[in-house]
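Intended use. Records like the one below are meant for learning the mapping from a protein sequence to its folded structure. Do not use them to infer anything beyond what is encoded.
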Amino acid sequence: MARTTSTMAEARLMLEVYTRIPTSRKISTTELMNSLEYDGIKIPRRSLQRYLLALDIADMGVNVDKSSKPYGYRREITRKDLEHIGLSPSGALLLLLAREHLRYLLPSNITKSLGHLFEAADQYLSMEAGRSKHVQWLEKVAFVGNSLPMLSPKILQGVLDTVSEGLFKQVNLRIKYIKSNGEAIEEEVSPLGLVQQDVRLYLVCSYGDPLKIRNFALHRIKAAELIERPSVVPKDFRLKEYVAKKLFNYGSGRKVILQMVFTSPETALNREETPFNSTQKIEKLEDGKYRLTVQIEDSILLHGWIESWREKAGIESVKMTEI
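Structure written out for the chain above:
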């Protein structure tokens, strides 16, 4: 009986090791040990190495890179993996579309955390539809942004993980941060939320006065660590309300009634199809021109939109009245 129990325990440990070997990247023995210990599973390094050797010999799709030390272990995606993920043709295609979209919005080290799903989608389409059809389909889809394309700034390894864990556990963070003027600061902050604006990620937090909310660009955070102290969240704080209140970093907080007269029927149709908000009204005037009226926040984005469309939309007059 003791032998059976021991064998079952060994099998469970080997399964734990196997399932923690990623399909999208290589992992070292040390990383595997840390992953196991994080969940309270302690395995001596020699035992772990023995399990990895057994998995390699057993031909279970575990590839070992011995070109340099430490060795790297990576698992091939199997049909059972695909069945477990539950991908459908439409789901696989949507995942690959998401990958193409995120490629221009987030740093590569962040999107790598989804690598196993993207790789599974690739494998699924290769197995089910044939590689040529898969490639042909993706060539028929494109993304067009509304702003100038920019490369995302680099976020230091581990910063996003630490910030995310602090938000999840609702505990404080100690961060080292470089301001836009080059000044370096070190502060203990209470994380309140994570916001993506164009290609940048921001930590919304408070420090010092808990009622004063600040935004820290993640790519300017040079170090971050968890502080086991509960975060101080201002009463009635709601991230969505905070972001909407001043268009995050682009708004002024000044509400205006915008009246704009223009000549382009195409612009009138576009604005009717995608209005600024529910207060928008478009009237066709007697002279064939159009007048748009809307309550909106005065912002850099609004002025940029007006200037970029001034000629094409035939904008003849713009009036803003503060509410």
